[in-house]
Amino acid sequence: MANDTEVLVLGGGSTGCGIARDLAMRGLEVTLVERGNLTDGTTGRMHGLLHSGGRYAVSDQASATECIEENEILRDIAGHCVELTGGLFVQRPEDSDDYFREKLEGCRDCGIPARVLSGREAREVEPYLANDVKRAIEVPDGAVDPFRLCVANALDAENHGARIETHAEVVDLLRDGDDIYGVEVRHESGPGNRTHKAAGTTEEITADYVVNATGAWAGQIGAMADLEVEVRPSKGVMTIMNVRQVDTVINRCRPKGDADIIVPHETTAILGTTDEEVSDPDDYPEEGWEVDQMIDTLTELVPILEEARTIRSFWGVRPLYEPPGTGTQDPTDITRDFFLLDHADRDGVSGMSSIVGGKFTTYRAMAEEISDHVCEKLGVRASCATADEPLPGSERIETLEAGMDDFGLRSPVARRSKQRLGSRASEVLDTDEANPVVCQCEGVTRAEVCDAIDQSGSDLNAVRIRTRASMGNCQGGFCCQNMANELHPAYDEETVRAALDELYQERWKGERHALWGEQLSQAMLNYALHATTMNRDRDPANEDEGDGLEYDNFDGGRPTAETRADGGARLRGETGGEDSSRGRGDR
Amino acid sequence: MAIEDDVLVIGGGLAGSMAALAAADAIDDARVRLVTYKQSTLRHASGLIDVLGYTPDGEGPLVDPFDALADLPDGHPYERVGSEAVREGLAFFDEIAGDAYAGAHTDANALVPTHGGTVKPTARYPASTAAGLASDDRDALLVGFKTLPDFEAPLAAEHLAAAGAPFSARGVTISFPGIVRDDAKVTRYAHLLDQDESVATSAGETGAREALARTVGAHLEGEPRVGFPAVLGDEHAAEVRAALSAALGADVFEIPMGPPSLPGVRLEDLLYAALEDAGVRVTSGVPVVEYEAGDTAGADPADEAVAADGGSDADRIDHVVVDRHGAEIPHRAEQYILATGGLVGKGVRSERERVFEPIFDCHVPHAADRYDWFVDDAFGEQPYARFGLEPDRELRPLDADGDPEFANLRAAGAVLGGYDFAAEKSGAGVSIATGYVAGRRAAEEAGAGR
Lengths: 587, 450
Fold this sequence. Notes:
heterodimer, A: 587 residues, alpha+beta, FAD/NAD(P)-binding domain, D-Amino Acid Oxidase, Chain A, domain 2, 3 domains, nine-stranded mixed β-sheet, eight-stranded mixed β-sheet, 17 helices, 32% helix, B: FAD/NAD(P)-binding domain, Rossmann fold, 2 domains, four-stranded parallel β-sheet, 12 helices, 19 strands, globular, FMN binding (chain A), glycerol-3-phosphate dehydrogenase (chain A)
């Protein structure tokens, strides 16, 4: 039997979650399905730049104008996800004066506040800039936590009655003639919050309208109903440093190029990026030279990067699109604008639209436009409120901040927790229970971890993106075990073990790209801790035979033990009548 | 002028300490010095003395580690020193450790519960862990603390059952009396018990030991042993255990934990006390910053002539320079032992394009492409875990051509390569065996040269 909903959104990235929130706030019944975790596709794999629009001020002024508008809106509605770092477009001696002038004029044309700094002034703002930096344009770029922002959208959609299903992969589009009326999904561990080791199920979800917001994967979804969506996935690498070498977004002021941006992000700085078309968004090469290029090229702007420690690298895939027949060769030339493909107009197949292209900073505006389209299709008259209503965590932050105490936490921990939780801080941190720090690198307490577990089930990667636990220097080596401990007793031991292994392997995946210097030492320490101290690599509990291990054959202790202090000396190992089964070492 | 010794050991972890102790033990009046820079990695280690838990092929857990030694591949540190030396080294450790460690009564490995909940094979274990073996079939109550997120006792108990442990374990989580801050360090727990500080309980003020025993006692259902995370005292650990044991009427044991590890710290204390007793001069907090090679009084021309066609025309280290708070002090010795650790201890370092040994630049074999330094499964056969020096059977590090880097330099412990201590569970055993052999041989050679 199928479950029915009014609008079905495919894809749990910023676009999908933004649409789900928008439509749910307009009173529609919404279900969102996502193959993995929220943000798993492209949203969680971006550099964390909240565009001022300066980046597009020369090449694409429509996008630039939209960026500065949305930038200002997000500062209001998502204050707890945004850090107002400011940004610099930095000109080196070899970079073009003409382009610098065009950039400045472009910013002014688009309403982006822009100010020229001399090289010396720029180095006063960012002391690690190279000595020969010529000058810079200061713009209101910012840093944004894409995980927090996306999850806040999903939470608010749920608050407005939406159903959000993660780990629910679309396996078929339901099409009847020229009408798409729903999907079949495969739930990895049944519907609801994810639980490792629980049996999978399938479900048919029917809907009045389907929105394909799967970005780089939109072509794969379309193909399920024989629809062609010409998305051109383009990969980019990002390399994470262990500290913030800069506190301001640093852009290279030149037309286009790889490795031209550094974004301060929480405790780290993220170097980016490249732009290279790939054929399969799930399978493309991730190579060392790309990481080297980030470090070597950006060292021209910030020389200390050459010797600095990186903690991991990751690749994201842009969902670039251009209308058939445009024929742009270089992916960097493809527009960053988004496209709403109504398959009724385009292919004569009703019931679904696909969204492709676009960028994170303007996710809300995209969602608004798409939601308008869906409402029109369904004959619903309701207006968008997402630009005015703050997201959960950003309600009345200023007044709350003033009245909040530190919840018994050391102040750096409390400060960071409050930054992450925003106005939800009291609700989450005000507990009578012991609230020790679970992740030392990022200062994440038990209360935050448990709050995330409540939201997302046994999935520790979902806990990670909500809390930043395991995202610091140790990359989970010291804390992922502690995070897993918090799953118990809500989840049984086997589930906890599977969840821990999944997180540990996920952390390793990105750390592989940072394996030299300090981070290789860290990796060896992590390995030693998990393999030597805990024996997680050879855990007998993971063996198929289960009880194949014959404990009897091992040393069971010396049968003449230390004398008990109460004088009740007895031979260890001779209690309880098990003396016939002593280890061989005792014989 | 330089500070003169017979044997200079660089590195103050388990391997360096064993090397210095073995050198001091080998000949009378040997002048042995140990210089160490950073805190040793013993603080990260569980304090267990693993010898060999699994073969390099992953076979195990091995009941008898000594059985497997003969089959180890060429180049494995145990193969280099030979099985007999492994036994001798361990016996030497047993003598030094005395009552502080157990397990010497048998060749068999013990299975010890880990704080992650499963079990691991080890050859020697601290006295504090002796009552807690998983290969002992008495039931156990495991106790965790609400403020210590590293150990979840009920989960560990379930995990032990899943690992097939031959006893019933039950876990409870309690508030540790006297711990008022949620982020207290493990040393704070230990200190409370060491000093038996007065703490407030519902029954009024009592000593911390009594308060803890009373809290735990309420949960005890006749189990003959009770396990705690390894926070039961530091300097007076035995006394703390005895007091808890008496009050509970059950044996008390510790489950080894991750960093910072009190059993590791206790082992370090034990080794440093032994070094002092043995007359080894220890200087801490000082890095070796450079060395000078060349001909020395020890290398007479006749020797060189013999060496030239014998394949051993290696230089000798004349002296090393130690940075003592800005002052560069030369240290000269007949024999040198490098025990600076592996990647974790920074005795082996790396950059994007190379892996190297930072003091003497000894050859470290490694693939040219750093993407060949790892495999994709975090617990797969990791090449980086085997990074380190390649020694000859005298434990002299070899250069790329297979010749000794220096005639008077030996290496011991994790700075050696060719084995994956984490997968094999062989870290402490290799440090002990190679430290012992390097120390003895160095002292004998220095003694012969005197």
